[in-house]
Amino acid sequence: MKVTILVLVVLLQFPASSAQAAFYQWVDTHGVTHFTDNHDKIPSRYRKSAKRLDLTDQSAPAQASAPEPQAPAQAAPPKASSYGGQTEGWWREKFSALRGELKALGEGLPAKQAQLAELRRKRVIYTRARDREAVNSMQAEISADEARMADLQKRLDALELDAAKALVPAEWRQ
Are both 34 and 98 inside the same structural domain? Predict the structure, then answer.
């Protein structure tokens, strides 16, 4: 409970810093992955191989968009085989599964980022090896979640293209 309150207080004090953060990742000659938020802290021999990781706040309110215009209703829906050889249930299940997993990862990301901020503060205050390991572990977990979200978004976009080619009705894509 105290940790939750502390995280909330810290997040309220630094609202702009949680909106977007750039981190750098590199692997040294021993195969150890390092992370930093300061480009100057990267050793000069690893700067060319360092990757920039842009983290954005997923909890920011989405822009309001105009509703999509409805297509005119067809007289009779085509047979299931004309929808890319798949049934209505198949299309609905695929879209639902991808969107559900993407939503779950997106909702969990802000909490992990808040936990990472708290771990960083502990690392700075106590400078213990276990705090550094916890920060590195959390950063890797967040990076893995973001990579999974990007993969899911690509798969969802590909499914949308397939559905458009197969003339799948919009209500099946929800």
Answer: no
Average pLDDT over residues 52-65: 56
Give the number of other CB atoms < 10 A from CB of residue 55.
19
Q: Domain range holding 111?
A: 87-174
Q: Strands, DSSP E only, in the chain? A: 20-27, 33-36, 51-56
User: What is the DSSP code (8-state) at residue 41?
Assistant: G
**Spacing of C-alpha 139 from chain mean position:** 13
Residues 13-47: pLDDT tens digits?
Answer: 654 444 456 777 878 888 788 778 787 888 888 88
CA distances from 37 to 17, 44, 102, 126 (A): 12, 15, 26, 19
Please enumerate in sequence order all residues whose Cβ is within 8 A of that of 115, keeping only pairs 6 or more positions apart, or say none. Answer: 7, 138
Cβ–Cβ under 8 Å, residues 36 and 23: yes
The sign of the CA dihedral 133, 152, 97, 114 is positive
Q: Are residues 46 and 116 in the same domain?
A: no
Angle in degrees, 0-180, between the axes of helices 129-165 and 88-126, rounded to the nearest 10:
160
* Contacts by 158-161, CB closer than 8 A, 24 or more apart: 159/94, 159/95, 159/98
CA 132 to chain centre: 23
167: left (phi over 0), alpha (psi -120 to 50) or beta: left
